[in-house]
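in:
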């Protein structure tokens, strides 16, 4: 599942759907009317045994609706899901559909440009005044009021984003709220001693690091953040990550400057299971463990990752 709303979803098609066999018009748009959706998705067909879907199927003829209870709108070989109702699906480079709720003025074609912006783009628009604005006398024109809005194409974290681009529901509301709060904090403008500092893009990597109480520094990747966290566990000699060598020798094995890096990590508080398990996280753990002569095992992963993933017990 790539994204979902209450009345639709965008998902990876099963292999039994042959998109290449679909006819296309002169603009490269595919004709999806020939796709037998319920035949291709046996999982959807199985839903017809549920009472709610049964009621829907039985009720549609009474409303003189002859079409199927479910509709396939677009297909493609590539998709970008930015946030709820902000996505794009294409086939062989031809955009089949682009949804950009919140980007007004017919500027949906600027979605990719806005998303590629390293900052937070400002969109100039007009809006109808509210009752409060009219009664307070704040505005003079009741029709077109100029306004500026910050464009937000950052992922909205309504589902947990996985490394492969798919999503799963959050295990509980606390984890959901933590991600959303971290994203809002990153995007928020701040007032500091030198003046106002503009908010930053709340990329999935920045939000993941922030929600774990860490920071993705300029020029860093998520692997760098994972590495700092693992090195902190080793520096503080946490359970399973204790290496029987002196601190200076351990710093050398980790490739860290003893005074400016290793001792800083050792002084900082360590909180177990700050990050959810992922293959990327395990790969970093395995690499760092190898450097200090440890063999990664389930116990070591459980100290650092909140959800256990596949690992060979005691193996490299």
């Amino acid at each position: 599942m790539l994204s979902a709303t209450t009345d639709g979803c965008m998902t990876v098609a099963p292999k039994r759907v042959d998109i290449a066999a679909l006819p296309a018009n002169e603009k490269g748009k595919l004709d999806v009317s020939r796709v037998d959706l319920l035949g291709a998705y046996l999982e959807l067909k199985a839903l017809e045994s549920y009472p709610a879907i049964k009621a829907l199927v039985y009720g549609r003829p009474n409303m003189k609706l002859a079409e199927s209870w479910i509709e396939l709108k677009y297909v493609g070989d590539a998709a970008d899901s930015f946030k709820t109702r902000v996505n794009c699906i294409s086939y062989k480079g031809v955009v089949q559909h682009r949804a950009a709720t919140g980007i007004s003025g017919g500027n949906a074609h600027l979605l990719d440009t806005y998303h590629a912006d390293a900052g937070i783009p400002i969109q100039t628009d007009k809006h109808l005044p509210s009752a409060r604005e009219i009664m307070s006398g704040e505005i003079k024109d009741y029709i077109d009021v100029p306004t500026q809005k910050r464009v937000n194409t950052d992922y909205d974290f309504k589902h947990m984003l996985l490394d492969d681009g798919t999503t799963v529901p959050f295990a509980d509301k606390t984890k959901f709220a933590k991600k959303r709060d971290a994203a809002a904090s990153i995007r928020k403008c701040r007032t500091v001693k030198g003046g106002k500092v503009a908010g930053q893009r709340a990329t999935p990597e920045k939000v993941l690091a922030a929600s774990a109480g860490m920071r993705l520094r300029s020029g860093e990747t998520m692997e760098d953040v994972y590495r700092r966290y693992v090195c902190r566990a080793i520096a503080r000699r946490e359970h399973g990550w204790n290496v029987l060598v002196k601190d200076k020798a351990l710093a050398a094995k980790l490739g860290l400057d003893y005074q400016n890096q290793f001792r800083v990590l050792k002084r900082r508080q360590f909180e177990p299971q700050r990050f959810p398990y992922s293959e990327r996280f395990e790969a970093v753990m395995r690499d760092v463990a190898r450097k200090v002569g440890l063999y990664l095992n389930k116990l070591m992963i459980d100290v650092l990752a909140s959800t256990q993933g596949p690992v060979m017990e005691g193996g490299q």
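note: Residues 308-316 have pLDDT under 50 and may be disordered.
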